[in-house]
Amino acid sequence: MAERDGSTPLYGIAIAAELAEVPEPTLRLYERRGLLAPFRSDGGTRRYSEDDIQRLRRVAALRDAGVNLMGIGKVLDLEDENSELKDENRQLRRTLDDER
C-alpha cells in the first residue's frame, strides 16, 4: 500500500467539517472564496486532505482573531508564498552544500 502524505484526499465534506469544527456550508463558502480547493472526484464529490483540514483550522483561527475573509485570503497567500520561498532556499542551500 502506498504511503499517504498530507495532500492525499481522504475525507468527505461531513467528516472534514467535523474535523475542522466548521459547518459544511462554511466549507462551501470558503471554497467559493478561494480559501481552499479540495480535490474533486470524477463525479464532483469533494475530498479533503490533512493539509486542507490544517488550512481550515488556520482560516478559523484568523476569523476568530477578527480578520475578514478577504484578509484571510491575503494572509494565506502570503503564508503559501513564504513557504514556497523557504523550500526554494532549502533546495538552493543543499545544492550549494553538495557542490562544496
Can you give a write-up of this model?
The chain is mainly alpha-helical and 100 residues long. It has a single domain (13-99), classed as Multidrug-efflux Transporter Regulator, Chain: A, Domain 2 (Orthogonal Bundle). Helix content is 63%, strand content 4%. The protein has four helices and two strands, in the order ααββαα. The protein has a two-stranded antiparallel ribbon. A hairpin with a 5-residue loop joins strand 1 and strand 2 (46-47). The mean pLDDT is 94.
Key descriptive features of the protein:
single chain; 100 residues; mainly alpha; Multidrug-efflux Transporter Regulator, Chain: A, Domain 2; two-stranded antiparallel ribbon; globular
